[in-house]
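Practice record 12: protein with FE3-S4 cluster.
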Amino acid sequence: MTYLVTDACIRCKYTDCVEVCPVDCFYEGENMLVINPNECIDCGVCEPECPAEAILPDTEPDTEKWLEINSKFSAEWPNLTTKKDEFPDADKHKGEEGKFEKYFSPEAGEGD
Ligand code: SF4
Ligand code: F3S
């Protein structure tokens, strides 16, 4: 089992999640984060920290797509372990539908 970041993170990227992860397994893309499923220890502490409710356990239905995205991009993007400013218009994009189709970027973020 692992926790996964979904597209609810896109263009929000609040990064509260990285502060609480005991194993530093978040990785930063241009406009979202992902979790490395091989490093996540399923502690669950990140899930309630996300203001966008973007983090789910893989026991939820229909999470296969997010498992694929988190696995693939955590191997390509840099590690992020400290909180940074959210997107300037994060609150506007919180809860928006269809963000993956509209905005997903495979580009790496800056990390730390
Ligand atoms: Fe990190 Fe725990 Fe969240 Fe996994 S469930 S990403 S180990 S905080
Ligand atoms: Fe994204 Fe939520 Fe973390 S918006 S960066 S998963 S706190």
